Amino acid sequence: QKEVEQDPGPLSVPEGAIVSLNCTYSNSAFQYFMWYRQYSRKGPELLMYTYSSGNKEDGRFTAQVDKSSKYISLFIRDSQPSDSATYLCAIGYGNNRLAFGKGNQVVVIP
Amino acid sequence: GAGVSQSPSNKVTEKGKDVELRCDPISGHTALYWYRQSLGQGLEFLIYFQGNSAPDKSGLPSDRFSAERTGGSVSTLTIQRTQQEDSAVYLCASSMGQGVEQYFGPGTRLTVT
Lengths: 110, 113
Hints:
The complex is a heterodimer of chains A (110) and B (113).
Chain A: E1 4-5, E2 11-14, E3 19-25, E4 32-38, E5 45-50, E6 54-58, E7 61-66, E8 71-76, E9 85-93, E10 97-100, E11 104-109
Parallel strand pairs in A: 2-11
Antiparallel strand pairs in A: 1-3, 3-8, 4-5, 4-9, 6-7, 7-8, 9-10, 9-11
Chain B: E1 5-7, E2 10-13, E3 19-24, E4 31-38, E5 42-50, E6 53-56, E7 65-69, E8 75-79, E9 88-95, E10 103-104, E11 108-112
Parallel strand pairs in B: 2-11
Antiparallel strand pairs in B: 1-3, 3-8, 4-5, 4-9, 5-6, 7-8, 9-10, 9-11
C-alpha cells in the first residue's frame, strides 16, 4: 500500500464553485500535512501546512486534517481560472522527508 | 531573493550515457532534497542532504544514482548508464535547517532515448 493515496482523476469546475480535494494516508507516524500547487512545467509551490487535526484557513483555501481517519482535505472557495493547476498532498515525518500523493489536475472553467 | 535553480532545464540523452543534474538551493538553506516526478508515479523522494552529509539516501532507485553536495550549497545528482525508465522530471528542493517548508526548483526534464 502506498503511503499516501490521492485519486489522480482530473476535476473540472465552473468559476466560483468550491473545489474539494482529499488524500488518505497509512502511517500514523506522519507529523505534518501539506498541500502543494503545481502549474504546468513548474516546480510545486507550498500552499499551506498544518501539524494538527482540524481546519486551517488561508484566504480562499482551507486545509482539513482528521488524524483519527488518516484523511486530509483541501477546499478552494470561489474558485478562479488562475486556480487551474495540479494539487498535490504531501505528508511528512522525521527528517522532513515528504511522501506525496499523485496529484489532482483541477481546471476552473470561466 | 532568488529561488531554487536547476540546470539544465531539459536534457535529452542516449541510453547508456551518464548525466549530471545540478541544483542551486536558496542561499542559507542547509537542507536539500532531490525528488523524481514521473507520469503515473507522482513525486518520489530520492535523497536528503543536511549540509554536505546525506543521512537519508533510501530513495535512490539503484546504484546507478548518486548525489553529492559541496560547500553546503550546490548539489549534483548523477545518473550513470541511463535507462529509458530514468526519463522523468528531477526536482530539487531546499529548506532552512529542520524547517518544514520545502521550496522547489523548476526541475530538469530528462529524456532518455
